[in-house]
């Protein structure tokens, strides 16, 4: 039996090219986010034509990967245009979406579009080969002795195959069915991992999931508002003053943390299921393109599994591609080294915190008191602590030969995750709980029912 050829060592992007990418892509985007000002005439034009300009921003990278040669300098030129597109949206959106909660909703995809465009257009230089398979010009260059370049399919919008592929690259953040598909994608069935529901079964399940999630969220939103004093900025600190610590405040942190992540999971799942329902109902996509977005909460018995197995991995590809670029191509850290891996992890969580902070700002939370970034950075700290404790335990107790995790270890793990999340989550959740924002959904079923019953009585 022939042995596998050794994996080619990672070859960083040449220093000059890496610097060019930083200066042409990331620096303009950062400056626009922090200091940009949109001329009044441009803001007015954007507000008058938001649908066309938003669509243009999203479809420009698609045209780039379909038509431009992997080494074309025009690929890099697209990136600042995408950055300008999301900056224009962020600046002009109050003019055409009055509800700030709804205005913040499309902002996340804009940031993910930027990071995805950088990754696809210039970091990996992907293209569609004439054999219908996605190719990476970087990979071809690094493994030139084993891999041959495949002629580019430039049929573009004239080919459903090319159009479908480009659409997946830009909009499928988990890269379902593509070479860069994120790991740990939840299965439809644990008993039969290959199972995929029929179109009818898919539509019924996802439709019920949307309705069920909406009703639960709606019910919770109709409950009496909590006392703002219970969620003050002082109590949200990672190290709150001693006089604020008592059984009641600790209990509030734990209960509100569980409630916060539950509502967040329901909201994200609702929109994912809704989009998937329309995609499959219109025959534009297949059920296989929309696997479950979240794993089982029972798999989250450590922080690493919470973020990589239970919680959605929709941001992982866009964020980690940029984090890896800075860790391995800009800083030139050895690929796979301990320092390199942790640098990439910290950068990934920091980027996530930056994105969520800007989204919360659009929703109406001023940057001066916006501390969402703390939650995400502290997750990397928690994983570091967790890895150290686990490695120390295995050095003392010896490696485990069991393929499954003992129940008592899972129990300790769940307590650890709950404790860490309850300590760190208030830095993000409390500011949202005390923010008097507009409702995300256009109507309330429970409020309407109450009004009808009151009128009838």
TrEMBL record:
One family from Pfam that matches here is MBOAT_2
The beginning of the lineage is: Eukaryota, Fungi, Dikarya, Ascomycota, Pezizomycotina
The organism encoding this protein is Paraphaeosphaeria sporulosa
State which residue ranges cross the membrane.
18-38, 45-67, 73-89, 110-128
For the Wax synthase domain, which residue ranges apply?
A: 290-377
Give the source's domain of life in one word: Eukaryota
Keyword Membrane: yes or no? yes
- One MF annotation (Gene Ontology) recorded for this entry: O-acyltransferase activity
Which GO terms of type biological process are on file? lipid metabolic process
Q: What is the topology of this protein in the membrane according to its UniProt annotation? A: Multi-pass membrane protein
Q: Which is one Gene Ontology cellular component term of this protein?
A: membrane
| Keyword flag Transmembrane helix | yes
Would you tell me the protein name for this molecule?
Wax synthase domain-containing protein
Where does the record locate the signal sequence feature? none
| Localization | Membrane
For this UniProt record, the keywords arranged alphabetically read as follows:
Membrane, Transferase, Transmembrane, Transmembrane helix
Which family is annotated? Belongs to the wax synthase family.
């Amino acid at each position: 039996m022939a042995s596998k050829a050794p994996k080619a060592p990672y070859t960083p992007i040449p220093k000059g090219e890496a610097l060019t990418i930083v200066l042409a892509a990331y620096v303009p985007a950062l400056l626009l986010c922090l200091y940009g000002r949109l001329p009044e005439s441009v803001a007015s034009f954007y507000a008058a034509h938001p649908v066309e300009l938003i669509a243009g921003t999203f479809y420009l990278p698609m045209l780039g990967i379909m038509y431009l040669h992997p080494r074309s300098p025009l690929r890099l030129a697209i990136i600042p245009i995408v950055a300008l597109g999301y900056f224009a949206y962020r600046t002009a959106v109050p003019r055409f979406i009055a509800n700030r909660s709804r205005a913040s909703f499309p902002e996340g995809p804009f940031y993910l579009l930027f990071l995805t465009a950088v990754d696809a257009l210039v970091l990996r230089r992907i293209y569609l080969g004439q054999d219908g398979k996605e190719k990476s010009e970087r990979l071809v260059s690094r493994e030139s002795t084993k891999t041959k370049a495949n002629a580019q399919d430039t049929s573009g919008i004239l080919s459903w195959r090319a159009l479908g592929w480009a659409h997946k690259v830009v909009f499928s953040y988990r890269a379902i069915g593509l070479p860069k598909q994120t790991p740990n994608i939840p299965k439809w069935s644990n008993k039969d991992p290959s199972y995929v529901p029929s179109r009818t079964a898919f539509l019924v399940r996802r439709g019920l999931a949307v309705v069920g999630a909406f009703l639960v969220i709606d019910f919770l939103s109709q409950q009496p508002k909590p006392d703002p004093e219970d969620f003050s900025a002082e109590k949200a600190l990672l190290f709150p003053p001693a006089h604020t610590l008592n059984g009641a405040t600790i209990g509030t942190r734990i209960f509100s943390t569980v409630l916060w992540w539950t509502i967040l999971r329901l909201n994200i799942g609702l929109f994912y299921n809704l989009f998937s329902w329309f995609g499959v109902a219109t025959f534009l996509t297949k059920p296989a393109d929309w696997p479950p977005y979240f794993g089982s909460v029972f798999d989250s018995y450590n922080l690493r599994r919470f973020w990589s197995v239970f919680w959605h991995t929709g941001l992982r590809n866009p964020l980690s591609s940029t984090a890896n670029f800075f860790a391995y191509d800009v800083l030139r850290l050895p690929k796979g080294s301990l320092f390199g891996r942790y640098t990439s992890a910290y950068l990934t969580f920091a980027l996530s915190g930056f994105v969520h902070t800007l989204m919360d700002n659009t929703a109406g939370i001023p940057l001066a008191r916006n501390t969402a970034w703390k939650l995400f950075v502290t997750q990397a700290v928690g994983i570091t602590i967790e890895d150290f404790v686990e490695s120390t335990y295995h050095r003392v107790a010896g490696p485990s030969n069991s393929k499954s995790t003992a129940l008592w270890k899972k129990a300790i793990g769940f307590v650890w995750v709950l404790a860490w999340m309850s300590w760190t989550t208030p830095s993000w959740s409390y500011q949202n709980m005390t923010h008097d924002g507009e409702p995300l959904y256009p109507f309330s079923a429970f409020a309407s029912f109450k009004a009808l019953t009151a009128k009838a009585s």
